[in-house]
Amino acid sequence: MLRLVGRWRVTVRSRGMLGGPDGGTDGPGEVTPGLPEDDEDRTAELTFDGDGQVFGSGGVNRVRGTWSIEQDTLRFGPMVSTLMAGPATAMRQEAELLRLLRGPLGLRTPAGDAETTSDPLRGPDGAPEGAAVPTVELVAADGDRLVLERLADDEEREHGRAFV
């Protein structure tokens, strides 16, 4: 069982990230969402609050909205974001992220199995120190997906960022 409440690093894996020197495929249906070296620090992050609010960064702009979950389907309410410009690759990544957040997303394990949540209104699951970072995939109807990796408490403190 998964608890979504907490902070997650988000990787966009979609056909929209293909093409050019900054993207490619690992094999059939696998996308390598590479960013040029100067854009590597433009990581998308989302924080799910227990009150149904979600906020973070698309990589360039701050984002905020609402979320709800029913069984293995995650839905986001209208999302708002700031309107700053950034490098083309980072902007394309952010546009794909926002596009995927508009539709229902199936919760899946990295192996592709359906995932359900437990007590989504409570805090992170408190995995033992040194345990593997939980990962979940959010899969859209078209097969494009977002990969979420939970940020460990130490990493959250290290970033020291607050998003509004």
TrEMBL record:
<feature type="region of interest" description="Disordered">
    <location>
        <begin position="108"/>
        <end position="131"/>
    </location>
</feature>
<dbReference type="InterPro" id="IPR038670">
    <property type="entry name" value="HslJ-like_sf"/>
</dbReference>
<feature type="domain" description="DUF306">
    <location>
        <begin position="40"/>
        <end position="103"/>
    </location>
</feature>
<feature type="compositionally biased region" description="Gly residues">
    <location>
        <begin position="17"/>
        <end position="27"/>
    </location>
</feature>
<dbReference type="Pfam" id="PF03724">
    <property type="entry name" value="META"/>
</dbReference>
<dbReference type="InterPro" id="IPR005184">
    <property type="entry name" value="DUF306_Meta_HslJ"/>
</dbReference>
<protein>
    <submittedName>
        <fullName>META domain-containing protein</fullName>
    </submittedName>
</protein>
<feature type="region of interest" description="Disordered">
    <location>
        <begin position="15"/>
        <end position="37"/>
    </location>
</feature>
<dbReference type="InterPro" id="IPR053147">
    <property type="entry name" value="Hsp_HslJ-like"/>
</dbReference>
